[in-house]
Amino acid sequence: MLVKFSEFFISLLIINTSEGIRLNITGNSFTKNKYSDSQVILAYNNVGPLMCISDCMLYKECNAVNFNRHKLECELLTVSYPGDNSVHMDGAYFTELGGWKKDKDGCTPNPCEVGQKCIPAMYNHPICLEFDTPCDVNPCLNNGVCRNKVNDYRCICPDGYSGDHCEKTPCTNVNCNYGGSCVIDGSTWRCQCPAGYHGTYCERDPCYGVSSCNNGYCVVQGSTYICQCHSCWGNHNWYSLCTCKYFMQP
């Protein structure tokens, strides 16, 4: 039965909890140099491997741990197969919670809900307390996934996105010419060009590639072009003035 106490009585119960009982952990083993890139419930340092496992048992959603021997760093994990990847990392140790055992107390089995930490207190009573993590403030943008670290977090960004908070989109630093606009297309981008313009960056205007103006010159007019003549072409008489204007329009 889950018992509710006043804050003063909770503090009294926690202070008198026997740490020795919590650390009586047996039954399984760690895999050396294996690191699981899984959801991190909580991360902290200055602990030993058995304390890391013992703490995992206090969180309903914890089913595995990463322990770093060099940093004395513990990561409490929610491993969901087959979506999680494991990598080789020197000094890392990984184990799943299944197979580990400890002496029965108020938190064995864990009576608390997801998002709560169970604290085994005096008289075999469990105390369920909500806990905060760095990722609780949802700092990652653009559907980035937040991963808790020791007193910090990091954002795992979707393909094409980057930055500390995934704030840089595929269109960041893309400049489309002639009033074109950058459009995100999955993990990449494309320039949506005004009518008559084309090219990767809309750099080609309607006159691009036009060579039919002969001695005239191409002039952009809206989404198309016209051929203009120089003030005088050929002989200096009115028969040859602007001849291309009449015969070389598109």
Automatic annotation (TrEMBL):
One of its GO terms (molecular function) is calcium ion binding. It comes from the Eukaryota. PROSITE patterns: ASX_HYDROXYL, EGF_1, EGF_2, EGF_3. It holds the Pfam family EGF. GO terms for cellular component: cytoplasm; extracellular region. Residues 1-20 form the signal peptide. SUPFAM superfamilies: EGF/Laminin. Coiled coil: none annotated. Keywords: Calcium, Cytoplasm, Disulfide bond, EGF-like domain, Glycoprotein, Repeat, Secreted, Signal. It is found in: Cytoplasm; Secreted. Disulfide bonds join C157-C166, C193-C202. The keyword Glycoprotein applies. Residues 131-167, 168-203 form the EGF-like domain. This is EGF-like domain-containing protein. It comes from Mytilus coruscus (Sea mussel).
